[in-house]
């Protein structure tokens, strides 16, 4: 029996949320992100700003050069997370088969819903608009890959039409690819729109004279496997519109991390150590909140020339305690950084996650006391803020 998969993408999500809080921003060129004099980048930009050439991940200083009078709005990630939860709540009212893939994207399996898919999509779109004042675009197909590509194509077509009218508005597109029409829909599209085609694969395909998905689909699967290994099998299947991946209603957390890019390069040892300790505490808190512990501690560093490296160490036992995480991270920092070496970015993470194992020996009570104390501190921080209680210097 054919499946019906719906892919929903909130249009310019961060900006759309900011517009609901400040109506004066509507229709104006603005960007959510960091300050240009502190190496800020564009997290999201309005459609008026996009008309000037501004794009996500662009340095804010460059965005200001492209769009005169660009308004910069500081990011409020906690707010965006709360609004995202409200959107996902609406989606779960439609079906329990929801897979959230990012803060502003999700797949729904609506195969068992008898309502016409396009009508359902437009109703969902209208509800999100009416209840939350947020625009979104939707793609519908028989599988996840084609549904997501349908969203991308629909948005591009709608934005082209809107631009031709001299407007700067969200696309609000709904695109349906009927069962059996997947290959015909994909054929004229660029090959790099397929899942699994990154820059290196795209370059290799181009060297082979393959520029569109349709051209890729003509190659025998055996030849794709010879050229690209097991990835070639997926390339061949995807080019024909085939994708049998199910909706994953629960996504396993593989790692928890924190990182910061400094507004100025840092050489101060004490500041770097203090930053690592604070981030380790936040990572540990997130581990405990999710009832997880991990054995692998990872340090991430970026130098002023943008060279980035990671180093990791594996503990004997899994941990969710900030002291153990920070000590391992500090040891890695000492091993990798030369004296007085400037640092642009620093981060710490924990992987190899699982449920904490509490095997308390007869005389081994100190660790258990420390854990219970930390849990009490977590509760105080949650209720009264981080400054209500701190460790003595």
Descriptive account of the structure:
By secondary structure, the chain is α+β, with helices and mostly antiparallel strands. The chain has three domains: 1-102 and 111-176, MutS, DNA mismatch repair protein, domain I (3-Layer(aba) Sandwich); 182-239, 5' to 3' exonuclease, C-terminal subdomain (DNA polymerase, domain 1); 255-357, DNA polymerase, Y-family, little finger domain (Dna Ligase, domain 1, 2-Layer Sandwich). It contains 14 helices and twelve strands. It has helices at residues 13-21, 47-51, 60-66, 77-94, 117-132, 144-164, 182-186, 199-207, 213-217, 221-228, 230-239, 269-289, 322-336, 366-384; strands spanning 5-10, 30-33, 42-45, 71-73, 98-102, 105-109, 136-141, 174-176, 255-266, 293-302, 308-319, 343-354. A five-stranded mixed β-sheet has the order 5-6-1-7-8. Strands 9-12-10-11 form a four-stranded antiparallel β-sheet, with helices on one face. A three-stranded mixed β-sheet has the order 3-2-4. Helix 4 (77-94) packs antiparallel against helix 5. The radius of gyration is 24 Å and the shape is globular. The relative contact order is 0.09. The model is unreliable at 359-368 (pLDDT under 50).
